[in-house]
Amino acid sequence: MTKVALITGITGQDGSYLTELLLSKDYEVHGLIRRSSTFNTDRIDHIYEDPHKIGTQIFLHYGDLNDGGQLSNLIYNIKPDEIYHLAAQSHVRVSFDMPEYTGDITAIGTTRLLEAIRRSGIKTKFYQASSSEMFGDAPPPQNENTLFKPRSPYACAKVYAYWMVRNYREGYNLFACNGILFNHESPRRGETFVTRKITRGIAKILTNKQDKLYLGNLEAKRDWGYAPEYVEAMYLMLQQDSPDDYVIGLGETHSVKEFLEEAFAYVNLDWKDYVKIDERYFRPTEVELLLADSTKARKELKWQPKVNFKDLVKIMVDADMELAGLLPIGEGQKIFKTKGIDWTENRMTK
Ligand code: NAP
Ligand code: GDD
């Protein structure tokens, strides 16, 4: 029997990788997308198929987390076996500018979905995209028993959603899991998150489109992993016999400064020649140190990530170089020389 999944946030970084994973397992995948005046499906265009085509396994539906009626309607009509709830106002800095909106979408949006499931009476499994940001300034390493001390409107909204999921699990016997994921990045990472901002900035510097990179707090430390490996953990959670909450992260922490050092050194540049500090990227309250203890997930889900911090930096720099037209030396491929730097040659010597 083909399993049916509904993904909210299918157009986001994680949604796109999860869709690829589920299609590879022969799922029928339904995704919630927002109406926009420009196309917002870049990350899934390569897997999307015309719904008129016979045998299509991916379907997109308009909706929004602020529209409970449409969420109910979709759940009732699609009758998914599994729901992966990834949609959110996911930017921490932006949540300080838009705390009310963040609460409505990231917190109450989850309640709207949970209520839609409960009222439909449909038996489905539910994944909630909880976040390591919920730990705030709780001392590291952080695991499933660590107290939440949220330090942003985004984190507060996620803590509320986390507890709603637990309440629906306990109160209504819903198979609902919280995946408490630490930062995970990829070439598909949104351009305003710090890792992608850095790797994209390097490509722009090398192609003379930018000569400075403006950043905020370089001292904050994050446990950064590779997104495609993290969506596997989401899938695994919903394949267990009973619902539970799991921390997912590498167990390796690095500062933003270390990311800069690693990424710029990879293309033989010194980050100090390019990076400037701009106060506007600082947050009123910051999460200084995140470090995952994912012992439970490694043991129970057999989740085993392979890409470490250094690999991740290389994957992201390589991808942004390629996007900018800077390709590795090879037959028929372009070689770019910018500012006297031949990135392709530099890379070959690394
Ligand atoms: P992302 O790239 O920012 O994607 C967010 C998705 O949510 C997009 O598809 C977006 O649609 C959709 N969305 C936003 N507001 C919506 C609304 N009002 N109604 C319907 N859809 C809406 O985020 P991500 O990195 O893939 O993260 C996925 C989830 O995991 C998020 O909930 C995030 O908070 C959480 N999380 C992420 C990380 C991480 O490091 N990536 C770690 C822990 C938890 P558009 O494309 O139209 O904007
Ligand atoms: N975005 C951004 N832009 N962050 C910067 C900058 C900058 O110019 N300069 C320094 N930083 C610092 C931030 O202050 C923060 O300490 C760190 O870089 C990481 O910021 P982000 O990449 O924006 O990620 P985040 O950790 O705040 O949030 C991400 O991870 C959470 C999981 O812990 C998001 O993906 C959240 O949705 C997710 O829940």
Q: CATH architecture, please?
A: 3-Layer(aba) Sandwich
Quickly count the domains. 1
**DSSP E strands, number:** 13
Rough outline = globular
What structural category arises from helix and sheet content?
alpha/beta
Q: How many DSSP helices? A: 11
Describe the fold and architecture.
With 350 residues, this protein is α/β, with parallel strands linked by helices. It has a single domain, classed as Rossmann fold (3-Layer(aba) Sandwich). The chain has eleven helices and 13 strands. It has helices at residues 13-24, 68-78, 92-97, 99-120, 153-172, 194-206, 227-237, 256-266, 295-301, 309-323, 343-348, and strands at residues 4-8, 28-33, 58-62, 82-85, 125-131, 175-181, 184-185, 213-215, 221-222, 225-226, 245-248, 254-255, 275-277. Strands 3-2-1-4-5-6-11 form a seven-stranded parallel beta sheet, sandwiched between helices. It starts with a strand and ends with a helix. 41% of the residues are buried. Mean pLDDT is 94; it is low at 331-340.
Task: Describe the structure concisely.
This protein is α/β, with parallel strands linked by helices and 350 residues long. It is 38% helix and 15% strand.
Secondary-structure topology with pairs:
Blueprint: E1 4-8, H1 13-24, E2 28-33, E3 58-62, H2 68-78, E4 82-85, H3 92-97, H4 99-120, E5 125-131, H5 153-172, E6 175-181, E7 184-185, H6 194-206, E8 213-215, E9 221-222, E10 225-226, H7 227-237, E11 245-248, E12 254-255, H8 256-266, E13 275-277, H9 295-301, H10 309-323, H11 343-348
Parallel strand pairs: 1-2, 1-4, 2-3, 4-5, 5-6, 6-11, 7-10, 8-13
Antiparallel strand pairs: 9-12
Helix pairs in contact: 1-7, 2-4, 4-5, 6-8, 6-10, 8-10
Bound molecules: NADP nicotinamide-adenine-dinucleotide phosphate and guanosine-5'-diphosphate-alpha-D-mannose.
